[in-house]
TrEMBL record:
Keywords: Methyltransferase, Transferase. It comes from Rugosibacter aromaticivorans. One of its GO terms (molecular function) is protein-arginine omega-N symmetric methyltransferase activity. One of its GO terms (biological process) is methylation. It holds the Pfam family Methyltransf_28. This is SAM-dependent methyltransferase. Coiled coil: none annotated. It comes from the Bacteria. The keyword Electron transport does not apply. The keyword Transferase applies. Signal peptide: none annotated. InterPro entries: NDUFAF7, NDUFAF7_sf, SAM-dependent_MTases_sf.
Amino acid sequence: MADLPEPSEEAREASAALAALIADEIKTHGWISFARYMELALYTPGLGYYAGGAHKFGDHASGGDFLTAPELTPLFGQALARQVAQVLAASQPCMIEAGAGSGRLAADLLLALDALGCAPQRYAILELSGELRARQAAIIAQHAPQFLDRVQWLDALPEKFSGCLIGNEVLDAMPTHAVRWDENGLIECGVRCGEEQEGHPLHFAERPASQALIDAAEILPAAAPYRGEISLAVRAWVAELAGRIECGAMILLDYGLPRRELYHPQRDGGTVRCHYRHRVHDDPFWYPGLSDITSHVDFTAVAEAGFDAGLSVLGYTNQAQFLINCGIGELLQEKLGADKAPALQGGRAKNALLAVADGDTVTEANLRAGLRTNGAVSVLLSPNEMGELFKVIALGRGMPQPLLGFTRGDRVHAL
């Protein structure tokens, strides 16, 4: 694609190897679902986006494709730790992080929980990528080495679990089925090989939807003609985990919407997006394995899957409200200095910081650090950035209510 940086020769070769593997599977079966394509593109050992060796997390200068909240500022993990501490106190001092990314959130949570006097006895990371496991271990060893012996990596979920499970930007990367509603019913949009289109031989091809998709679509508010996605994997994963929680909660943070908003007519066309070098594009077949592929989460489906498996829906709100409830404003004030930190007032924050830079009490280095921290928190909270786009949902068993992160602005009624 013309507006995307050209991958290196090594990256193109790895992508070609993955594309050949995908093409072989398509030739064997004649057709694969988009969910299967997404699974292969993201998770094929050694070649998939999350299972290969390419740098993924970080800013543009570092060669990353996107930034997650923990990479922006440790204040994210410190605020989240306050909610985690409440869950651990009411259950067991054990944690699971699903899909730990770079490992930065794990390090931040371990340090913040220790500062709160409730460091977990065990911090398990559910991560299938060996390359990411190594990167996570290195980050934890660098930033929280005293807790490295409490960290273990899991290949699968434990049979039973009490404690707190965290999933930050995990659900959006689970395979999703692409579908189309028309006057004749539900059509699934899968993947076939053929003559090159848009520079590659992979392209969408349709067939009647499976009964599982038809059943899932019956409760959706989409009206033909309409294109969108249905993630059976998200529902299954939440239900599977919910059945294993004896006492505790899962806290899931991701971008998405309640069902009635996600399947609104204005979102005809679906929400599948690809991320490469801090650019967003909509061609999932462009160099398979080099771009992240995501879709918006149906948070109503998440709540239903947990509830049907016996969990209570403990809260649902946007990320900004959740972090404010967990005290990120106070944490920012402590970071900058209680007597000099400006209030979170959008564009006025920079001027407020500059106003206290009298040359004696604030060094230039401190000022720059303060501006970076304030800017990062603004990204986390701004409704035009991550504050509204990202949502937080908590599901659990045997937990006190309300949970700290949902004391104000709870939107469970909107699910």
